[in-house]
Each structure stands twice: as C-alpha cells, then as structure tokens.
C-alpha cells in the first residue's frame, strides 16, 4: 500500500517536472516568436527595398515616377524637425525633472504635476496632433510648418525626458548634496556642479530614447496637415550676409521620413512599395541605432558609477 | 569686507536662486499646460460639433458618413473598428506577453534576462508606420493564402501586428510586477515541494495579479490609440462590423483620413475629428486611470 503511494507521488513529481520543462520551452518559443517577427520584418524590408538603395535615392526629391523618386526632402525635413524638437524638449524636460526632484515641495501642486506627467505619457500620439492642429496651426497661426511639427513632437516626448531625468537624479546619493551644502553651496550650485553632471548619462539615455520615438512618429504630423509631396528644400539656416543665421526654415512646409513612407505605402503601384521598403529600412536603422546607443549608454553608466 | 556688503551679496544670491527656481517651476508647469491645452482644444471644437449634431445621434446612429450630403455621425461605427482590432491585438499580446513575463521573471537565468530585456525594448522602438507596412504587404498576403477571400485591407492583419507591437510593453510591465513579489513567497512555495511552474502560476502570478492586470489595461489603451498600423492596413472605409476579416475604419484612421484631405478650418467635417478625438481621449483616459490605479495598489501590498 505504502509503496504504491510513493510510486504515485513519484509519477506526480515526474509529471510536474515535465510540465516545468515544457513551459521553459514554450517561454523560449514565445520570446523567439517576437524576435522572429522582428527579423522577418527587417529582412522583408531589406529584400523589398534593396534595389532602390542607391546613392540617387538619398539625393532625389519625391517624384511621380517611382524609379526616380528619392528621400532628400524627407531626410532634410526629419533632421530639421528633430532639431526643433531637441531644442525645446531637452531644456524643458531636464528643467522640469530637476524641479520635481530637487525643488518641489510636497504639496498638491506637485501632486498635480506628477499625475499629469503620468497621464500625458499614456495619451495617444494622434491626440497631440489634434492639439497642435487646433492650437499651433490655427490659434497661434504657426501654419503647417517645421516649427509646429517640432513643437508637437517636443510635447510628445517631454514625459520621456522628464521621467529619465528624474530617475537619473534620484540615483545620486544624498551625501553628495549634503557635502556641497556643508561647504556653503546654494541649491542651484549643488544642481549645477554636482547633480546635473553626475546624472548626464541617464539624461542622455532618456533624450535619445525620446528622439528615437519622435523620429518615427507619423500620426501627429499627418494630423497637423503636413504635405506628402515636397519637391524643394526649406531655406538654408546659414546665409552669406549678416547675421549669417536665418530662421526662415522654421516656417517652411516640409515632409518627414515616416510620412514619405506612409505616402508610398498607401499607393497601389508596387513600384512605390519598393521605395517605401527602402525608406522604411533606413528609418528602422535610424531608430535601432538610436535605441541601441541609449541602451549601451545606460549599461555603461550603470557599470561605471560606483558611489 | 563689511557686514553690509556681505549681506547684500547674500540677497543677490538669494534673488538668483529664486529666479532659477521659478524658471524650473515654469518648465514643470508645461506638462499641466499641455493637458489643459488638449482638453481646451478638444472640448472647444466638440462643443461646436455637438451644436450641429445632437449627442444622442452621435451615440446611437449606425451610420458614419460625415462628409456626405446626407451626413450621419454614429460614432459606434468607428468604435466597432477600434474595438475589434484591439480585441485581435490583445488576443495576441496578452498570452504572449504573459508567457514571456513569467519566463523572464521565473525561469530565465540572469544573463538571459539581461539579453532579452534590451532586445524587447528595441522591438518596442520600431516606428508604427513600419509595422503598418509589414501588416499590409507581408502579413495580409500571408493571411490571404490561409483565408481565401480576405480583403486587402482587414482588421485581422492590422490587429495581429498591433498585438506583436504591444507584446514588449505588456511583458515588461508584467515582469516588473512579478519581480516585485517578495522572494519569501517563492521560497515558501519551493519548500513545500512545488516546481517552478507551480510556483509561478499558483503563487507569483496571483500575487502580482493587480500589476499584471494593469499591464493588460495599459496595453488596451495602447491598442485603442494606435493609428498608423490601422490607417495603412485596415482601410479607411467606415464599416459597422464585429468581424475581424472585414475592412473597417477606426477612430484614429478616420482622423488621419480627414487630415490627409483638404478640409476648411471651421467646417463640420473639421470639427468631427475633434469630436472623434475627444471620444478616443476619454476611452484611453478610462483605461489609463484604471491601469495606474491598479499598479499603485499592487506596489503598496507588501
């Protein structure tokens, strides 16, 4: 009788151990499925688009003829929009992060700001597009310009930059601050000389991740009414006459990489799909590089800093 | 240095500190201003819209033809597209995301986790327009071989790809929730002779349930707000359907469609996208608030 019981128990144990192994395999498969999809996506784009990846593709404007179309205006547009986004989002985001970590008193105003940032991170990007259409394009009369697009994307990635800044600042031990205060430093001196330099790595990580997200955003830019067919470049920011800088390009109509891809994808002609694949391949490479850089940077920061 | 000049130096220092603090505070207020701006714009244009179209019609009409002469504004038509595609996405993202989270949290070695987490992060960094291309020109032709008669635009392939897109998001939040379960619970389970799987399913998963549920809900909110995959792969034809193999416009796809055309500022068609946007915003807000509330609850438990 007792023997039989032990046999049964052994069977149960064996069965459960087998289930354990099976789940391990299932888990690996699930993880593999994600990776496989990504690899398929990447390879599919490369195969569809490699014939179009010639030097001309980077130096030609969009065209009615698929073979002659290129991404010059989209590349320039993306670069300029990203420039505006970075110039707005980085100072604002870092300043807000510093305020919330170093200055903010524990009161309802701070609570509201914090809840706000958490909520903003969950707002669909197309809603930012509607905000920009109503506010920037019509109320502020900024038009469907590079400036509008840059501001919109800046608002969109602001929560990312703020959260990254806060996390980076929080990881600095308070002894550092106390040491500086003990020597008579003011709050801003502490921030400027200690908190900011030590959290730079973490902040950079967040900024890069935010920019990588902004570079691929399509919906908000379409919503503000960006044109899909741009066969000219914005005015050059550098001029030959004094003061050598021009901000005319801020008001220029533009197109960006994701919009160009959307436009080519939604055409029925398969020749344009090859263009979309080629441009998509370049866009994925850009975001992958940026995200990869951010991950590597974070890894380095974590490894190098020992308090 | 006399006492007075030393004191005056102090005041200037103090003033400078104050100015800097105010500037930083203003920067932090930008996020509040953004929210207020969104609410202001959406409500302002929607109020004009609801002066033209009664709210009751908006909620109960079963046709969506805002740009026709015989205009109908039944949001349920767009909502059906949004809900069906989200349901398809979640039927992919929830099982896959949960399995990956359990695997990474309870089964994988530390090194495998160190490798897998950044890779998942990279996956979630792929622009959605790329997923849209992939859905339309790779997954749909593939599905058409399995399901004969599947139209070129359909909710199924858009939903499936959207699901894959959300997997890293669901997996990462669920994993955080499971890792927050104290070791002592696992040790107790192992001491009773439970296997890893038993511990994972019967101890860790229930203990982390509210966090995992939060991950699901935030995933839903992601799916509902997703735009480009649907605009590219699901078509832009409004269609009241609960069948994923059909083509249908979602709320987001409709906004894109209108924005692509040339609608004069102030027309009813123009205001329609704000009313649609307000609906979308309220929908995601409900899910986000629910998700954050559940997340906060689980983190206070131990």
Helical segment count of chain A? 11
How widely separated are the two ends of chain B?
Answer: 58 Å
Termini separation of chain A:
63 Å
Number of strands of chain A: 0
Written overview of the protein:
The complex is a heterodimer of chains A (307) and B (302). Chain A has eleven helices and no strands. The model of chain A has no long low-confidence stretch (mean pLDDT 85). By secondary structure, chain B is mainly alpha-helical. The longest helix of chain B has 50 residues. The model of chain B has no long low-confidence stretch (mean pLDDT 85). At the A-B interface, helix 1, helix 3, helix 4, helix 5 and helix 6 of A face helix 1, helix 3, helix 4, helix 5 and helix 6 of B.
Describe the structure concisely for a colleague.
Chain A has 307 residues and is an all-alpha fold. Chain A has helices at 2-49, 55-59, 72-103, 108-121, 125-139, 146-170, 174-182, 187-216, 219-223, 257-265, 270-304. The longest helix of chain A is centred in the N-terminal third of the chain and has 48 residues, at 2-49.
SSE layout:
The complex is a heterodimer of chains A (307) and B (302).
Chain A lengths: L1 H48 L5 H5 L12 H32 L4 H14 L3 H15 L6 H25 L3 H9 L4 H30 L2 H5 L33 H9 L4 H35 L3
Helix pairs in contact in A: 1-11, 3-6, 3-8, 3-10, 4-6, 5-6, 6-8, 7-8, 8-11, 10-11
Chain B lengths: L2 H50 L2 H6 L14 H33 L2 H15 L3 H19 L8 H25 L3 H9 L4 H12 L1 H17 L2 H6 L17 H10 L7 H32 L3
Helix pairs in contact in B: 1-12, 3-6, 3-9, 4-6, 5-6, 6-9, 7-8, 9-12, 11-12
Please tag this protein with its features.
heterodimer; A: 307 residues; mainly alpha; 11 helices; 74% helix; B: 302 residues; 12 helices; flat
């Amino acid at each position: 009788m007792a023997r039989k019981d032990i046999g049964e128990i052994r069977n149960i144990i064996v069965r459960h151990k087998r289930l354990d192994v099976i789940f391990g395999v299932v888990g690996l498969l699930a993880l593999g499925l994600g990776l496989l999809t990504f690899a398929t996506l990447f390879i599919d784009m490369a195969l569809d688009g490699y014939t179009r990846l010639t030097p001309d593709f980077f130096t030609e404007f969009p065209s009615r003829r698929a073979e002659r179309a290129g991404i010059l205006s989209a590349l320039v547009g993306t670069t300029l929009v990203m420039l505006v986004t970075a110039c707005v989002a980085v100072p604002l985001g870092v300043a807000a992060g510093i305020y919330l970590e170093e200055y903010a008193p524990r009161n309802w105003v701070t609570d509201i700001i914090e809840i706000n940032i958490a909520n903003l991170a969950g707002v669909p990007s197309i809603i930012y597009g509607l905000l920009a259409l109503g506010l920037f394009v019509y109320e502020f009369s900024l038009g469907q310009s590079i400036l509008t697009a840059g501001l919109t994307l800046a608002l969109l990635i602001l929560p990312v930059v703020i959260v990254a800044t806060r996390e980076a600042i929080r990881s600095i031990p308070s002894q550092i601050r106390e040491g500086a205060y003990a020597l008579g430093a003011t709050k801003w001196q502490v921030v400027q000389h200690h908190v900011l330099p030590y959290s730079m790595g973490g902040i950079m990580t967040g900024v890069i991740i935010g920019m990588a997200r902004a570079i691929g955003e399509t919906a908000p830019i379409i919503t503000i009414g960006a044109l899909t067919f741009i066969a000219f470049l914005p005015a050059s920011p550098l001029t030959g006459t004094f003061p050598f800088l021009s901000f005319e390009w801020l008001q220029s109509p533009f197109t960006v990489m994701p919009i160009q891809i959307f436009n080519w994808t939604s055409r029925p002609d398969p020749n344009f799909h090859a263009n979309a694949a080629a441009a998509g391949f370049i866009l994925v490479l850009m975001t992958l590089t940026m995200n990869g850089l951010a991950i590597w940077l974070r890894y380095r920061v974590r490894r190098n800093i020992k308090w | 240095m006399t006492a007075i000049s030393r004191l005056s130096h102090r005041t200037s220092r103090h003033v400078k500190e104050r100015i800097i603090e105010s500037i930083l505070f203003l920067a932090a207020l930008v996020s509040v201003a953004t929210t207020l701006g969104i609410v202001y714009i959406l409500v302002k244009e929607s109020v004009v819209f609801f002066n033209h179209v009664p709210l009751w019609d908006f909620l109960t009409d079963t046709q969506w033809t805002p740009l026709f002469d015989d205009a109908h504004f039944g949001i349920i038509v767009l909502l059906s597209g949004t809900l069906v595609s989200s349901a398809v996405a979640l039927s992919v993202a929830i099982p896959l995301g949960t399995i990956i989270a359990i695997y990474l949290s309870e089964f994988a070695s530390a090194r495998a986790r160190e490798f897998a987490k950044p890779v998942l992060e990279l996956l979630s960094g792929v622009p959605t327009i790329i997923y849209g291309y992939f859905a339309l020109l790779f997954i749909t032709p593939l599905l058409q071989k399995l399901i004969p008669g599947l139209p070129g635009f359909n909710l199924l392939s858009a939903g499936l790809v959207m699901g894959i897109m959300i997997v890293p998001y669901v997996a990462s939040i669920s994993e955080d929730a499971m890792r927050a379960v104290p070791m002592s619970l696992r040790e107790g389970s192992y001491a009773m002779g439970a296997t890893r799987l038993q511990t994972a399913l019967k101890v860790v998963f229930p203990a982390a349930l509210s966090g995992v549920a939060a991950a699901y809900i935030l995933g839903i909110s992601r799916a509902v707000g997703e735009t480009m995959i649907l605009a590219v792969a699901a078509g832009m034809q409004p269609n009241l359907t609960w069948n994923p193999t059909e083509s249908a416009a979602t709320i987001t796809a409709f906004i894109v469609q209108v924005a692509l055309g040339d609608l004069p500022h102030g027309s009813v068609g123009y205001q329609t996208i704000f009313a649609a946007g307000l609906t979308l915003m309220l929908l995601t807000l409900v899910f986000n608030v629910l998700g954050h509330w559940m997340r906060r609850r689980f983190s206070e438990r131990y």
